[in-house]
């Protein structure tokens, strides 16, 4: 790391409103305390992850994107809509990377109506293509929280009970235009065990507070674009499953990737099942994944077999979902003054300057704040601990 | 937990304490120690009530001979109920901690249906009731005159206490009052003649008693049992009721004559203003009514009603009012004015003559309270500037202090908007209030705010007329339509039923996410009694400076009196009055430390030091140079930023140690030092 990440973030976050950051510092403790609180919250997330928690690994997530007039606001650059869609693309990729056996769907709401942009599906490409197209859409009217939650609910309620049913609302407007009492809908959502989380783009709205509290989701409001990204990324991790959710065994197929070269005489080019609904990709291919049950061919995993309904995954996918179940234990936080060893971070080799340091309980190596977060959020294993013999 | 406040053991029924509560109790104890009066300002939502109760109860327990009774006066029934609730909590805590069964008797008198005039009040340790029981001579006589001298009297929410005093001593007489009084007199006459036939002895007995004079009452007062009633001045007690009104028939005849005189006075076509002596002179010349019998009117009527054993006193309110007027006008030569208006200013074509007998000196009503009780505490969230209250109420406090709110995050954001984006100054000043640009800018401000503030916004105007004008021209300019895309609009009217309906719908719209704006009026019902916690009031916008309607003759007379008697300049008083109402209005939004809200003062005059300096310290503290004289755009930027900051998760642990303390934290040295800075002596 050639530059201190903290600096870089502040630069990025404050580039439009640097004067405000300056003002807060001068006038008093406001900025500092809020930052402090945020930092504490960040640490807390790390702690929460630890322990034996059952996680909802098979997720069905609907993302509701507000596309009302308020999305034209330019406090995110170039405007809220473009910025949101760009982050969403990133989110979709990251989501499937971390939750390979899950699905996502996108709903937009504007002009008091809600419509599905994409249906629940496991293919990131389709979603990203749809998001790219949505950038050109116009933002008009008011959003309808009720209608969009209702659309999401109609699909989610048919999902099997062992899956984690989630809705994530990205809510920019401060008003919602509802055809009926939303509190009734919240009750229904709660009964169906659908977890609703909200990311607000402007301020705290009461109805969202209630909505998230009742359904067990989280509610956050962004400070700036980098904070937005951070909040969005929180939803990449699978949430703890409620204790009442069912457990069941799921049949899964692990198709082998058959590679065939043109030179091979036996190879027969064939259509993939996924081409049934898209025309953009080349038609005939040689190799691919073949469903172990019905021999249907697919070019990409993970996918649900269109013929026999078997969930097809590859072993690395399943393994990747796994680290959520066995998270790295939280490092112990100690004030810098009490630490007597050499003041270098084990990971980045930088000098320990922050007010506290973090010690791995297993190998007793010390790390700085940023590395601590990096290790827990991304790496998921301690670089200091001796690797187990393979 | 248990606190030690300068050697006094105080039981506090909560696990955590705000630093300012500790500081408040400290000041309160010093006041009680000195056996003096105090003026204390502490923001609402910081637990004023429980601090007051726990300290005074502890004081009573520790020094039962010094302080025998706590009289807690609050304004409205819900407020009284809140006090009782806190008191109950405190008592339960005492019972749990000490294991002794509670020997404290507390009594709450709330609405009329619960009115209790049982002598039990004498023995109660704590009495909670409305201001009027102590200040209004008509009621005080029934309820409060037997309160012991060693009582501590607390006036909560006392920022308007001077107006309450004045109202309680003022009498307005219309034609309707006189008509009803006429019927009262007739009923009295009939009853008297009936009783004369059946039970003449009763009337004779009353006559005998009146000859004896009011000696008994006098004895009682000297022995300190009674709180003196301002309507019944000391001198009267020395004397017997004059002969001319001693018999029942003569008295009724006397009242009739007085009534006819008043009727004649109301038959006028131009405004008359005169002083009490002038009035007395006139009445003597015209109908030969002397000053002396007039003074005994109230007392004589009461005695008569008692003798005739009339149960339903309420029916006789008109005649009682007239008799009070008679007594007051003949007793006080100073501090009152009589204004007779043939019609209301707004409706000059409809004859509706009113006789205002208006008190100009609030100290008259409250004087007996200060004189009698050893400690009187005046407290509220907005009492700034502190020094004006002792001046207009004419007393000498031993402590005057203003407390700030310690906050873990800055949850209030006062902003002064002085200009529109077109740089045109925004003000409700009389000369420019009809200005098209000003009205448009006010509209734009509301429009912009409606787009960025979540849930509820409360906007205050300076008067109903001004609100009507502005809303009408917003409608013409299409601003209302644009606002309604963001939020629904509700309007307070002078009709109470309509207003409470609007309020209910407003809250519903805030609750279900549609968002709403409530347009209301400073000094109206909404600005005084109704709290907008959390999402019900994320922003308050104060359009203009809420000066009182200065053309009113009553106000002019009062201003003149203040200038002559108390050397308070007209402008000073008007500004003070306007600012306390503005502070009340904006204070509606913040009702506690977890709450947050914007306070937007939309008038460039707020930026001036003489206005700004009269805001409560807990608001002034957050008013930096950067938030004065902003344009609409700047306001929007600052507000957006503030609302985002406030929407970040905020938990109780974040407050601990800063604005919320456990006992250990409280006892640490540097915390005690910090606490010492919270109170600012005036």
From TrEMBL, chain A:
The keyword DNA repair is annotated on this UniProt entry: yes
Record-linked InterPro entries: C1-like_sf, Ssl1-like, TFIIH_C1-like_dom, TFIIH_SSL1/p44, VWF_A, vWFA_dom_sf, Znf_C2H2_type, Znf_RING/FYVE/PHD
Segments forming domain VWFA: 60-202
MF annotations from Gene Ontology: zinc ion binding
Compartment list: Nucleus
GO cellular component annotations of the record: nuclear speck; transcription factor TFIIH core complex; transcription factor TFIIH holo complex
Domain C2H2-type residue range list: 358-380
CDD domains in the record: vWA_transcription_factor_IIH_type
Keywords: DNA damage, DNA repair, Metal-binding, Nucleus, Phosphoprotein, Transcription, Transcription regulation, Zinc, Zinc-finger
Annotated SMART domains: C1_4, VWA
PANTHER family: GENERAL TRANSCRIPTION FACTOR IIH SUBUNIT 2 (PTHR12695), GENERAL TRANSCRIPTION FACTOR IIH SUBUNIT 2-RELATED (PTHR12695:SF2)
Sequence similarity: Belongs to the GTF2H2 family.
NCBIfam families named among the record's database cross-references: ssl1
Protein name from the UniProt record: General transcription factor IIH subunit
High-level lineage: Eukaryota, Metazoa, Chordata, Craniata, Vertebrata
TrEMBL record, chain B:
Molecular functions per Gene Ontology: 4 iron, 4 sulfur cluster binding; 5'-3' DNA helicase activity; ATP binding; damaged DNA binding; hydrolase activity, acting on acid anhydrides, in phosphorus-containing anhydrides; metal ion binding
Organism for this UniProt entry: Cyprinus carpio carpio
Family membership: Belongs to the helicase family. RAD3/XPD subfamily.
EC number: 5.6.2.3
Subcellular location field: Nucleus
One Pfam family cited in the UniProt record for this chain: HBB
Domain Helicase ATP-binding: 7-207
Coiled-coil residue windows: 178-220
Keyword set, alphabetical order: 4Fe-4S, ATP-binding, Coiled coil, DNA damage, DNA repair, DNA-binding, Helicase, Hydrolase, Iron, Iron-sulfur, Isomerase, Metal-binding, Nucleotide-binding, Nucleus
InterPro entries according to UniProt: ATP-dep_Helicase_C, DinG/Rad3-like, DNA/RNA_helicase_DEAH_CS, HBB, Helic_SF1/SF2_ATP-bd_DinG/Rad3, Helicase-like_DEXD_c2, P-loop_NTPase, RAD3-like_helicase_DEAD
Lineage: Eukaryota, Metazoa, Chordata, Craniata, Vertebrata
GO cellular component: nucleus
Any one of the GO BP annotations: nucleotide-excision repair
UniProt xrefs under SMART domains: DEXDc2, HELICc2
Cofactor(s) annotated in UniProt: [4Fe-4S] cluster
Designated name of the protein: General transcription and DNA repair factor IIH helicase subunit XPD
Catalytic activity: ATP + H2O = ADP + phosphate + H(+)
